[in-house]
Amino acid sequence: MARVLIVGAGLTGSLCAALIRKELPRPVHLAVWDEAGDSGGRMTTARSPCNPQSTVDLGAQYITCTPHYAKQHQSFYVDLLALGILKPLTSPIEGMMMKEGDCNFVAPQGVSSIIKHYLDESGADVYFRHCVTQINLRNDKWEVSKDKGPPELFDIVVLTMPVPQILQLQGDVANLISKCQRQQLESVSYSSRYALGLFYEAGTKIDVPWAGQYITSNPCIRFISIDNKKRNIGCVLVFLITPESSEIGPSLVVHTTVPFGVSHLEHSTEAVQELIFQHLEGILPGLPRPVATICQKWRHSQVGCASRIRTCETSSCCAHVDVP
Fold first, then answer.
1. In sequence order, what DSSP letters do the residues of 261-321 get, joined into one string?
2. Dihedrals phi, psi of 244, to nearest 5 degrees
């Protein structure tokens, strides 16, 4: 039985695993490795260390479906909506730019539930804290080394992590990328930012008329979301805690601006968190102090410059690679 390894347990890796399981005509052994402690990638949902039922989306906040992708990916949306993994975004997001025909969706159980759904569908063996460092060709198989433990052999390896991490890999895989392809891969750029998740005690009131708000006048903060309210969990009008959710406090997420993220990329998360708090106080005066926080550094947040890579005439690598 062929052994297939997918590196990266985000949306691309999880969906790739599900599609391989569905489309391949013969059985394969599927494995998914990720360097993080959980699945999700840039669609991560974090849990409060004080109450695991209290969650916050630290990455993608909602899914925007354009008319083009509504047709091209119709089956995916139909399935996710039918299963209740996605539902239409109905809560107010101030400052959100809407184009004609676009539809927005949220994940009631957190955006990482999409990834977990596809990993479950794939039946893959999923391993966390597996950081791939080197890939070599050994007797027509790929020997994949990680930072801890012995290397393992696979027939096929699919890399879905950010481009800079692919370019850092050691071994034979580095020699398979032609000069032309490497130049184009190196031209792919990413924005960087921080996300701060705040968890509050049950009964805390955050009296704002919106579920999310884009901020345009602050050098640090770009977006704020009352996460429970965004997903329509335990909220009414101004987000009062209801009896049905009386044991779960509200959660809030703050995304910084890209310039702030870039300029503080190598600062300690503790120092960055305190700066975000200071700016947040100016936007939401009197906001209670949370019982727990999680600060996430997104070094590779969103693709700022994408590249479509085709083989140079002298290259012997794959004929066509799309970099998202």
1. HHHTTTS-HHHHHHHHHHHHHHHSTTPPPPSEEEEEEESS-SEEE--EEE--TT--S-SEE
2. -65, -25
Q: Are 256 and 189 in contact (CB under 8 A)?
A: no
Structure tokens at 22: 């569905």
Please spell the DSSP secondary structure of 62-107, one letter per residue.
-EEE-HHHHHHTHHHHHHHHHTTS-EE--S-EET----TT-EEEE-
| C-alpha distance from residue 204 to each of 25, 197, 207, 247, 286 (Å) | 54, 16, 10, 11, 12
Phi, psi of 274 (to 5 degrees): -65, -40
| Model confidence pLDDT, tens digit, residues 239-249 | 333 443 457 89
Q: Among 173, 63, 164, which residue's Cα sits nearest to residue 108?
A: 63
Locate 5 and state its tokens.
């390894």
- Locate tokens 């890399």: which residue? 159
Contact 254, 199 (CB under 8 A): no
Tokens of 110: 């957190």
* CA trace torsion 282, 285, 290, 296 (10° rounding): -20
| Cα–Cα distance, 151 to 139 (Å, whole number) | 14
CA-based nearest residue to 21, from 87, 95, 111, 117: 117
Q: What are phi and psi of 168, to 5 degrees?
A: -85, -10
pTM score: 0.88
Best CA proximity match to 43, nearest among 139, 148, 119:
119
* Alpha carbon distance 168, 147 (integer Å): 13
CA–CA distance from 237 to each of 23, 207, 229, 234, 288 (Å)? Answer: 45, 9, 9, 10, 20
CB 197 within 8 A of CB 46: yes
- The model's pLDDT over 155-213, given as tens digits with 9 standing for 90+, comes to 999 999 999 999 999 999 888 888 999 999 999 999 999 999 999 999 899 999 999 99
Cβ atoms 203, 241 nearer than 8 A:
yes
* Contact present, 307 and 181 (Cβ < 8 Å): no
